[in-house]
Every structure is written in structure tokens, then in C-alpha cells.
Amino acid sequence: MSAQAVMKRSGPAMVDGEFLFTETDFRRIAAMVHGDAGIALPETKATLVYSRLAKRLRALGIASFNDYCALVAGQDGVDERQKMLASLTTNVTRFFREPHHFDHLRRELLPQLVASVRAGGKARIWSSACSSGQEPYSIAMTLLSVAPDAANLDIKILATDIDPNVVREARAGIYSTSLLSGMPEDLRKRWTQAVPGRPGYVEIADEAKALITFNELNLIGEWPMKGRFDAIFCRNVAIYFDDDTQARLWSRFAGMMPPEGRLYIGHSERVAGPAAGSFTPDGITTYRLTREAVR
Tens digits of per-residue pLDDT, 240-295? Predict the structure, then answer.
């Protein structure tokens, strides 16, 4: 079918480029991304969607977005649908991003958690959108700065992400030295080591790795965890969800925390919806779960 015939059938192009990308194509992709990951894609993101997915069309040798949509919507497109989602997900992260959160964790929460664990309790921290691992490793290094023997205590960090590719990268814990700019020099010297045969790369020390379990998890899907988390990091993720999805997420987090548990969110995010009354501000984009909220 000619490009002119396809355009007549599907509508005008939303973006000028080598592949015809119509409003129908955009809406199909947006619906799949929202259904799979809760991410809301307004039409203002059409150019971004086109530019990122055009690379997938070229890699697959597919001639149109209409054909690509048919692939990812079908049973034979499960793997490609995951790659589509990964292509549209922004994995912007760095070590000790928004450092006030780690200062708060070190000063306000970890001393009491460590004391409780030494008295026979346990502590759990969740990095709920860990990307390539810089956030949970920053948590682990902060914990080790408070309790150097943390590996011998009942303190664990769960790190999850929807993208299996970044989870694998995070689990490996190997980074270019160009990505270490946010890491304090003393922590870098103590908790990273050069990678033999790979100049310019370091690996996170085993003591920090041992504190973290990495798993794939969709935040809008089922959560297999049964216990509660003393701290949950969910930063710069909810901003991509619509209001209803955000509200459900905050409520689910509240149900996974004990009294006085802390929630750390991104600088552009605010807890809203029914769960807003369950949390009290406890610092910059840091919230404390009130005792009254816990049943």
C-alpha cells in the first residue's frame, strides 16, 4: 500500500519523519503504555514517542507504526512490547540524587532503625523504581556509614524496577567513573573498587551489594511482598502517572509501612488523594506515616 493510501486510511501524520505516525498510532501506543505501566502519555509527547520508537522500527525492519502497533499488541510481540516500554521510560538517575533525602535517612531514620535491629528487631527499605541501581546503592552506602556491620544485622534493601534490562545492570553494580560525580569521595574510596581489565569502571563493594535484593516489579501490578517497609523511596516516578494512579500508589505505600515509616518522593511530586491525610511532611519531599493511619 502506498504512503498516500495509508495516510488516507489512518489520518495525517502527527510528526514529520521517515515513518507515518498518526494520531491513531499514538493513541494505541499510549493506551498500551498506560495499561502496562500506568504511564500517561499526553499528545505533547508525540515527538518523543516517535523519536524513541523509530529506532525500534528500523531495528526490526518494520515499515510503519501501524504495523509496529499490530506487532506489540499481538501474542508474538510480548518481548517487543517490553522493549517498547523500556524505550519510552526515562531512566534518569545518579548516585545520591537529591542528597537531602540521604542526609535525612542518615540523621533522622537510620539511627533509630539500627538501634531497634540491635535490640532484636528488623528493618526493611524499598527502592521502588531503582533504575540502574544508583539509588539503592546510595541507600546501602548511607546505611553502612551509620552501621559498618550492617551485613551482619537484619537490615535489607529491596530494589525493584519494571525494566528487566536496568535490573540486570543494577545487580551487576558496575559503573563508569563518569557516573560517580554525586558520590562523596570517602564513600567512593570505601565502597567501590576498580574493575580488572576495564579501565574507567568501578564495581560496588560486596558489602554494599549484600544488603540489596534486586527484582523486576511493576508498580501498578501485583506486589508479592508481605512485610512492611520502614522507608520507601519512590522518586520521580509518580509524576508520569495520572492523578488516579498516583492516588492509588500513595495509598498502597501507606498500607506497606509501619507507624513512623518514611516515604521519599521526587522534587516535583506531592502526596495527594485519600492517602494525603495519612502522611505528615517530615522534610523536603519526605513524609512520615502517622500512627493513626496504621490499622
Answer: 899 999 999 999 999 999 999 999 999 999 999 999 999 999 999 999 999 665 55
Q: Of 161, 235, 262, 288, which one is the catalytic site residue?
A: 161
Q: How far is CA 195 from the centre of its chain?
A: 26
Active site residue 79: no
- The CATH number for 184's domain is 3.40.50.150
d(CA 53, CA 14): 14
Assess if residue 57 is contained within a domain.
yes
Phi, psi of 213 (to 5 degrees): -115, 125
Report pLDDT digits (tens) over 96-111. Answer: 999 999 999 999 999 9
State the residue range of the domain holding 67. Answer: 3-88
Tell me, yes or no, if 161 is annotated catalytic.
yes
For residues 152 and 281, membership in a common domain is answered with: yes
Tally the residues of the chain: 295
Q: DSSP string of 220-233?
A: TS-----S--SEEE
Q: Which of 53, 69, 88 is the last residue of a domain?
A: 88
Domain end call among 46, 68, 88: 88
Q: Are 216 and 149 in contact (CB under 8 A)?
A: no
- Residues 275 and 269: their CA atoms lie apart, in Å, by 14
Q: Which residues of 168-203 are buried (b: 16+ CB within 10 A; e: fewer)?
A: ebbbebebeeeebeebbeebeebbbeeeeeeeebbb
